[in-house]
Amino acid sequence: MSRFVRKAPSVCTDRPLNNSDVSTKLRSLKQLLTSCLGPTGRLKHVQNNIGGHVVTTSSSSVLLTSVTSSQPIIDLISSSILHHVSRFSDCGLFAAVLCLSLIQEAKQSGVSRQVNKHLLSLCTSYLQHEHCGCRVPVDLSSTQDLITLSLSVVSSKPACVLTEAEALHVSRLAVRAFLLTVPCGGPGPVTLGRTLSVGVEGASVLHSEVFPGLLVEVRDVFCLRTAETLRSDPLRVVLFSTSLAGDLCELGDGIIQVHPGVDTDSQILDQLLELCECVIRDGVKLFVCQKVVHPVLQQYLRRHGVMVMERVGLSLMEPLALLTGALPVATLHATIPAKAYGTVKEVSVKEFGSKTMLHLEPAGESAICTMTLCHRNETMLSELKVVCQQTEHVLRLTLKEPSALLGGGCTETHLAAHIRHQSVQEVAESASALGCSQTEYLLGVEGFCRSLEAVAAALHHDGGDSFMDLTHAHHWTRPADAMTENMEDNSALCCGCGMVQSGPTVDMKWTHLNTEHPEFSPAALLKDRAVQPRVLDSFTAKLNALQVAVETANLVLDVRFVIQDTN
Amino acid sequence: MFKTTQAMLGSTIINHRQHVGLQKLSALAGITHSSLGPNKKYKFIQDDRSGESALVCSCFRILENLELTCAVGQLVYRTVQTHQKVYHTGSGCLLFLAGAWSRVALECLQRGISVAHIISAMSEGLDVCFDVCRRFSISTERAQSQSSTASSQDLGLQVSKKPTVEGSQSSTEPKEKARDALKTLNACGQRKIRLSRHFSEAKSENISKESEDSQPKPPDIKYISERLSHGCVDAMNLVFEASRTQSNNIQQETSCPTFDITKVMTCVLPGLPEEHACVTPGCILLLSAEQASLAHCLKDRLLKVVLINGDLSFNYSHLGFKRPTGIQRVSEEAALSSSSKEEDWMEKVVTLLLNLEVNLILVSGLVSEKVIQRCSWRHILALEKVNVSILKALADASGAVPVTYATQLSKYCVGTGVKVAVWRDLSSYERKPSIAVNVSTGVNSKLVTVVLTSCIEGKLQALEDQFWACAYRLHLALKEKAVLPGAGVTEMLCIQHLQKRAERNSSQQTKRAALANPYRSVVLHLMADGLMDYLSTVMVNTGEFSKVQAWTAVSQQLQDCNQSPGAPSMFSEVFLEAEQEGRAVSFPVKSTDAPSTKVFDNLSVKQEAWRKASDLVFLVLQTDAEVITGIDLKTEAAQGNLMLL
């Protein structure tokens, strides 16, 4: 007897943002992400409910992928942030915190979404303007700016637990790896190469290295003997993407009927051996297969001085094809055309901690490199890997748009000061264009700027105070346990990005962030300064993060009903 | 800073001055206090549900048996596991200091010091400790036995080679001068040689005579290994034996003492008393009684060998091979049964082996019962479950090429010159009769087997762990060519330097330094206390001291040393003497007697353990929330301390 369960009706929530459950959850999400921001951000242990593997992290990409919610609004925000991160890698937390602050501010003030949109366009046009005070050009002819940029990314993730020297070493490696992926000259469109990373657990970070070419881990200790005998230059390579295990893997669910006397296994093996014979005749010295190679084949090939690398995995196939110029062979039933073979210059054995790897060097010019990342423990290593990928992405974005934004919260405060100033100047036109009263408009501006400043203030987690100077509108901090009460008494400090320095000779006024102060036009820094910024953020990533934050916030504020199917 | 337990669905805010994660770390470390130092105590770990229990001795084994599931527990276990895998020793020190320094961090939080300041000051403290390690490490070339006259000559060489040393050759008081010289070396940041008794023996005529001899002396393995035993004298003796056996087997002109840890294997035999532990060249494998007579026949002959990496049975196929399921056999006659096919295969294999004149098969996987029988009839000895690393070593030594299938074998795969000897008949100790054979490749092979025995089966793992700990200590010391003064001397020096650094800070605190980190000296002092705690716990574990006595003794020594200026090397080793000499220690030893270094520690093990301990503390200290994924709303939403998302 079957029993029917009545379907539960869908649940509809009216004005979800006014719902107490939703606002509690938004608050917790904000608290969770705000506490992660910046180089002194707090870490989170991520673990499943049965006490499995622990990941310690403060990156939005790791954190948000593991967080799913029963509230669609939370999922909406997290998926739009993750989408930004997948495209730009950097500034995920910035976007998330800004978005959540904007939602909170707009909920309190009830200002129309149009104002936020208008202010966003003011921001983007200012950031792209040539007189923008918080953007600096990146000099691609020297590595100085690139290293600063990558150091800013690397040191923004405390879960890597790096000392200063280690952080610098890793950022230099990241820049070197990036430079290796940029092909030299040649006409036509330029395609960037790839950086692969191999993690080695248990070794010191300072042992991390970058190699041109590929490093492939070898598990079979017996195959290394042939590696030493390979001397011809260059070595011919064949690359198989199909299994050479000698089974009938292509059969699928089909049925074949055979005579009892027929030994299918040995027939397949004979066919494979024929293939190998042909490969050896063609002078191949390195035989690479994505999947398993039958041991008899391996022995046969080795006897003929061919090095066999099996089970390299799908993820390495594309880089291998790029490096060697070989076309992966996907069938056993046709002869291998000459153009399918590739070449490598040299094969050598390298040892890293417990791992033995084969180093394949490209014969010609190739924009592929491998980064071996070493760290003392698993969770720190996995965060280091995330950070290095992020750095590589940021550097690539810089190639397209060679400028950067000042970091350390200075861009946020500067931008807020500029928007305040500009809005007051143009309040009448803007308000009438947007169809709201001037008070409403100014309220919206205040909310927007406060949200920006809140992100800058969120960089500190030890209870310090955030300040802004009234000349350049840069971001300053005074630690909670500092000896002096006033910013003015602190001699020889510098702002978040390191471009402005206070001293006895400089006359400077400060104000607490998020307090009333007369609006002013923030002065741009002198262009020919000797001072180099200490913290830089990716221009492209941050600009997009700003847009994502405002648009997501607007979308969330626009949601009138949430309808959930509870079945 | 909040400690929130943040779930995919949840969280609560706990007073930030009582960081739960750090408390957990400290509590976990507390479990292993008694497994610290040379006098380790065994622990039983019992599973109430299954009734099973384990006898454990080392910190790593305790953690392994505890099955920790909380986030901090997992983090600790993973870290210790990684450390153990690489170094095989020092896990206890790692975990103790993780606990001690997590208490430092807790104390700092309670005093209202910010996380950033704690981390920067503790990193500085760690740098101070590493600097101490670097400066006070002893080169193994110089660490020679006292009796040999070469040691003093060597030292003369060391002193006179340095251009910074002036006038020491003409000195009538070499002891004083040498010490001065070392101070100069310190100032240059070079490695310091700190064996004061050598200085007192140094004769000035030796110094000038020996300075031409620039050949580095091979390290004195006996001397070094004795000092690295850390209480496991028996295990270290086995290690030394293994090293000597390896050196003797290599018949080269330069019979330099070596220790190749990759060629050492262990074989545990329950049932025999512990004194029967021994070292033999070659590799010891256990055989069933049926094969015993065959082994007797084959002994003392040079055999041909084949190596099989996989199973030796009809049904075996290599990794990644899938048997097709959709094959139908169509036939008019009755098909051959699978048993007759197996018979064919067996016939083929045995014929092949006979043609190749093979008498010995070593298989990394299993060998089917039938194959063993059939081979025995034909005087072929098939040994199963042989470690892959042994296969590799035998392949290198005999010239055999390992294959996966027996049918692959050809004359190119056959190795020669392997001997099988019956090592011992174990029938009287085991329930089922068995014998142990020794498979060796004769001379020029470094392969040695260390046989570990115990009447108590549960103790064998601890014995094996101890052996490997000692083996790795020696291996690392020889690899790094340097050791640290042990028995707490390095820690004492670290405490002294940490305290010095802390005081220098508080006295010369400029406005700027104060601004940068006003709590540095507090944190450094607390870190030094953590090391004091470590030392006193080790002393308590010797059974001679109460915690208070130990703490007083350590601080008394520190004070004495601080009062006599210019003698940082004057700490005496007190912690291991009791154990080694089997009597009560004469403590405190007067710091004016020039102490001889009786105990060494490994440089990299200590540094890595400290570094990993601080990593754990930093990771946990900076963590303010746990995100738990996949919580079931219906069952667990009731838990009050979760903040649901």
UniProtKB/TrEMBL annotation, chain A:
Source taxonomy: Eukaryota, Metazoa, Chordata, Craniata, Vertebrata
InterPro entries recorded: Cpn60/GroEL/TCP-1 (IPR002423), GroEL-like_apical_dom_sf (IPR027409), GROEL-like_equatorial_sf (IPR027413), MKKS (IPR028790), TCP-1-like_intermed_sf (IPR027410)
Protein name (Swiss-Prot/TrEMBL): MKKS centrosomal shuttling protein
GO terms for biological process, alphabetical: camera-type eye development; chaperone-mediated protein complex assembly; cilium assembly; convergent extension involved in gastrulation; heart looping; inner ear development; Kupffer's vesicle development; melanosome transport
Organism field: Labrus bergylta (ballan wrasse)
Pfam families, per database record: Cpn60_TCP1 (PF00118)
GO cellular component, one term: nucleus
GO molecular function, one term: unfolded protein binding
UniProtKB/TrEMBL annotation, chain B:
InterPro entries documented for this protein: BBS12, Cpn60/GroEL/TCP-1, GroEL-like_apical_dom_sf, GROEL-like_equatorial_sf
Gene3D superfamilies on file: GroEL (3.50.7.10), GroEL-like equatorial domain (1.10.560.10)
Domain of life: Eukaryota
Record-linked Pfam families: Cpn60_TCP1 (PF00118)
Membrane spanning stretches: none
Name of protein: Bardet-Biedl syndrome 12
MF terms in GO: ATP binding
Region annotated Disordered, chain positions: 147-178, 200-219
PANTHER family, per the entry: BARDET-BIEDL SYNDROME 12 PROTEIN
Biological process, per Gene Ontology: chaperone-mediated protein complex assembly; photoreceptor cell maintenance
